[in-house]
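Readers of this paper often ask what the protein records in our data store actually look like. Such a record has a labelled line for the sequence and another for the backbone structure tokens. Nothing more is needed to write down the fold, since each code stands for a local backbone conformation. The record that follows is passed on verbatim for readers who wish to inspect the format.
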Amino acid sequence: MVRNGTIYCDPNNESQKYDLVSNTDYKNYEFKFEWKLEKEGNSGVFVNVQEQPDINATYHSGPEYQLLADSHPDFDKPLKRAGCLYTFLPQQNFVSTKAKDDWNQSSIVQKDGKITFYLNGKVTAEMDFNSQKWKDLVKHSTFKDFPEFGQHVSGKLALQDWSRGVSFRNLKIKQL
């Protein structure tokens, strides 16, 4: 829902949850956005998402820029902290999220399959989705059973509604 000029995923809404997926595929881009989570919040932004009849969820094809409140029980797991490439890389530079009512600033830059994540002005993850390192990481991950996961260097962007109370604003994308 849109509330006070933000995209708000209400954790108390009983209707089925869906991720918000862009209409456009992106390959070389910079995506800037602001976000905040409610207490112990958890969400994400997926990149290179493929929409096909045999792909049931955004996370079955798209790697995730993790959004996680420092108060969440998973915060002590380095592969799940905010700004990381979810379950693949810990934060490259440690960054705490802002207090509950403050907005975090993030950006995702992808150029020819090389991706860089930023959280509150610091680089938190870098990966080349064309590299053997990436292919090996996927092959040994919990995503290995999803044949399209991490196989693309272009696709849609998706904002996750994980029923934990997340807000997004100032979403800006620039083609590179």
Observations:
- The chain has a mean pLDDT of 93.
